[in-house]
């Protein structure tokens, strides 16, 4: 892993900067700083993408090359975005090439980490999809610009978009490379650059362009640059959604590194007189202790989230308007919600002492016994229709029982649906398979 250059912070990338602190700190230990060398190909057509890159400086172009060798830039990205949109959209490969057109650096995340984060539906997903939308606007405006506007206007748009991704006003770029990016002849770029230099808007030396008057360049550009810039500003003006708290993402591959970093952040008195071996042993023990503490922190968070989900499920189960209950092979009621307790006329505190058969009309008992045996022994879903005895709060009722077995075939989870209540005399008792 590259040691980040001085002052190179992951949050110089605007997507990472917009993440809430909790989401950012969860990703921080997995962000790998990598250099972006001029001309470096991050991925080629047909490659399986293994990383998503978040540039903090430099520019990366998405370039399509035809069979005859000619090429054109589809879009560019830098500190405003990311490289690896196929992974954001659920794909793994691409038909274009991502190549560095201006050197710099980036932080990257492994594909499986990005996939996990996107599955949570949180702020990274919102920001990434928003960026993809802005990128599509850039591509669409590029098509319009290349078709309807002059080479001078195309060059102004391209220079301004490039300038937005760089900290200064200087681009290390040859006219031949710009021509390839725009998909036009080099002579056309040379003539257009000469006009801009004569107007005092840029200064061009071999392989280097300096923007002298950005506002003048914007005035000379077509509306395509403003459309793209407005979309990016709108994107980063949105507040990321605050998602429901998700699961803790396991990342054992970086646990050691994160533990080492936490140890370095702790203030400790120097041990100048320690023997190297002893000091190393103490260091290892301290790192392992911190690793255990970090494991415990993740376990505590996971337990807390599991408890919260369990409580939420219990509320949904208890107050559902449909009767739910669980019985064993003898028909003993193990669990039931409030609606089921009212229909059966029993107290929930007595659920382990009550058999469902005692709430059924005598004629329905054989049907129920056969139904229960069929579900638990056959390990399959089953149903039958039985008559519930009247209670002080419910008349005699014909109900449909639908049951499914648990994983071990020990318990049957049942839902009751009312077919008919207040039956006159002895209602027909039916069973369907």
Word description of this protein:
This protein is of the alpha+beta class and 433 residues long. It folds into 4 domains: 1-147, Jelly Rolls (Sandwich), CATH 2.60.120; 150-221, Arc Repressor Mutant, subunit A (Orthogonal Bundle); 252-316; 324-421, PAS domain (Beta-Lactamase, 2-Layer Sandwich). Helices cover 42% and strands 21% of the residues. It contains 14 helices and 13 strands. A hairpin with a 5-residue loop joins strand 12 (397-405) and strand 13 (411-421). Helix 5 runs antiparallel to helix 10, helix 7 packs across helix 8 (186-198) and helix 11 crosses helix 12. Residues 15-104 form the Cyclic nucleotide-binding domain. InterPro entries: cNMP-bd_dom, cNMP-bd_dom_sf, Env_Response_Regulators, HTH_CRP, PAS-like_dom_sf, RmlC-like_jellyroll, WH-like_DNA-bd_sf, WH_DNA-bd_sf.
Q: What helical percentage do the residues reach?
A: 40-55%
Reading the helices and strands in chain order gives HHEEEEHEHHHEHHEEHHHHEEHHEEE
Q: How many alpha or pi helices?
A: 14
Strand content: 15-25%
The total strand number stands at: 13
> Do you know the CATH topology of the largest domain?
Jelly Rolls
Q: Estimate the mean pLDDT confidence.
A: 84
Q: What is the C-alpha radius of gyration, as a whole number of Å?
A: 33 Å
User: Low-confidence parts lasting 5 or more residues at pLDDT below 50?
Assistant: 426-433
Q: What structural class should be given to the helix and strand makeup?
A: alpha+beta
Protein name: Cyclic nucleotide-binding protein
Keywords: Coiled coil, DNA-binding, Transcription, Transcription regulation
GO cellular component, one term: cytosol
Domain Cyclic nucleotide-binding: 15-104
């Amino acid at each position: 892993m590259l040691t980040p250059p001085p002052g190179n912070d992951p949050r110089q990338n605007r997507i990472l900067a917009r993440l809430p602190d909790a989401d950012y700190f969860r990703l921080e230990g997995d962000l790998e700083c990598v250099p972006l060398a001029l001309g470096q190909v991050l991925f080629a057509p047909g490659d399986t993408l293994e990383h998503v890159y978040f540039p903090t400086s430099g520019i990366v172009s998405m370039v399509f090359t035809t069979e005859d060798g000619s090429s054109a830039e589809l879009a560019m990205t830098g500190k405003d975005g990311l490289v690896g949109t196929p992974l954001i959209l659920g794909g793994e490969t691409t038909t274009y090439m991502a190549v560095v057109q201006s050197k710099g650096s980036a932080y990257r995340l492994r594909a499986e980490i990005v996939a996990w984060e996107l599955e949570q539906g949180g702020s990274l997903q919102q920001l990434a999809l928003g960026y993809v939308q802005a990128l599509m606007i850039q591509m669409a405006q590029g098509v319009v610009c290349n078709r309807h506007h002059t080479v001078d206007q195309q060059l102004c748009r391209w220079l301004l978009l490039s300038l937005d991704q760089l900290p200064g006003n200087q681009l290390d770029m040859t006219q031949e490379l710009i021509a390839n990016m725009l998909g036009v002849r080099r002579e056309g770029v040379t003539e257009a650059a000469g006009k801009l230099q004569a107007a005092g808007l840029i200064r061009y030396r071999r392989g280097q362009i300096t923007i002298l008057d950005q506002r003048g360049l914007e005035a000379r550009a077509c509306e395509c640059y403003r459309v793209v810039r407005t979309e990016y500003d709108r994107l980063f003006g949105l507040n990321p959604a605050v998602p429901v708290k998700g699961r803790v993402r396991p990342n054992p591959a970086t646990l050691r590194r994160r533990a080492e970093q936490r140890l370095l952040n702790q203030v400790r008195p120097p041990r100048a007189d320690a023997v190297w071996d002893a000091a190393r042993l103490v260091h290892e023990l301290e790192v392992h202790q911190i690793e255990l503490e970090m494991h415990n922190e993740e376990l505590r968070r996971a337990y807390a989230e599991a408890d919260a989900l369990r409580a939420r499920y219990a509320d949904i189960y208890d107050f559902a308007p449909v009767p739910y209950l669980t019985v064993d092979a003898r028909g003993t009621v193990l669990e039931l919600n409030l609606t089921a307790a009212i229909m059966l006329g029993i107290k929930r505190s007595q659920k382990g002492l009550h058999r469902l058969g005692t709430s059924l009309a005598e004629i329905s008992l054989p049907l129920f016994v056969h139904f229960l045996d069929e579900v638990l022994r056959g390990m399959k879903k089953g149903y039958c229709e039985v008559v519930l005895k009247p209670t002080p709060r419910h008349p005699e009722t014909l109900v449909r029982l639908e049951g499914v077995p648990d994983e071990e075939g020990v318990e049957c989870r049942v839902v009751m649906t009312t077919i008919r209540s207040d039956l006159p005399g002895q209602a027909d008792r039916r069973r369907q398979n």
